[in-house]
Amino acid sequence: MDKERFRGLCLEILPLIAGIMKSVKRSGYEEMASLIMEGDDYFSFLAGDTGWGMRKDVGGAIKLYYGYSEEIQPQDHLQEKMTYNKVSDNLVEISLVYASLQAEHEELSNIDSIIWKQMFVQWANEFETGYAGTDWKQDDYLEKIEKFARHKIMEYIGLEVTK
Asked: Are 57 and 158 contacting, i.e. CB atoms less than 8 angstroms apart?
């Protein structure tokens, strides 16, 4: 795109951006908002650090969503460390299921990775709470976490679980 064509685009969209900014401020989201667009098939709008957003997926469905976040204070302020525990194990397994599903479902890549990360953490904690007290010597952990993750991921993108 040459400079003049880009300048023309900028001049055309500036009033639209100003209108969006005015609406965002009028609604009380003055801190920050972001809009990501990818062709006609996808957009994502985030209202600052509220966790609220809206997106249009490849399938055309427009959805509101809320991404959970929580501030944490690392114990070692000089160097953040993650410890291996049940929840971190859940997080790794959920990520592996997501990676395996990407080959079959390209629409997974249309959702911002920050949102996925938030959802993975939320689901890792949810799985741990839901299966608290389970004797994993009697139950198959990998089977349960894979089924749980597959269901959550497919449900999140609006598709039924086939396996």
From this structure: yes
Alpha carbon of 30 to those of 34, 49, 69, 117: distances in Å?
12, 11, 19, 25
Q: What is the pLDDT of residues 65-110, one digit of tens each?
A: 887 767 777 665 556 667 778 899 999 999 999 999 988 888 888 8
Q: How far apart are CA 162 and CA 147, in angstroms?
A: 11
Specify if 2 maps to a domain: no
Residue range 10-40, pLDDT digits in tens: 899 899 988 988 888 888 877 788 888 887 7
CA 98 to the chain's CA centroid: 12
Residue 80 lies in a domain: no
φ, ψ for residue 21, nearest 5 deg: -60, -40
Boundaries of domain holding 38 = 22-66
Tell me, yes or no, whether 47 and 101 share the same domain: no
Q: Are residues 104 and 138 in the same domain?
A: yes
HSE at residue 137, side-chain half, CA atoms within 13 A, is 0
Residue 7 lies in a domain: no
Task: Identify whether residues 99 and 136 lie together within a single domain.
Answer: yes
Instruction: Please state the domain count of the chain.
Output: 2
Tell me the whole-structure pTM to 2 decimals.
Answer: 0.51
Number of Cα atoms under 13 Å in the Cβ half of residue 50 = 18
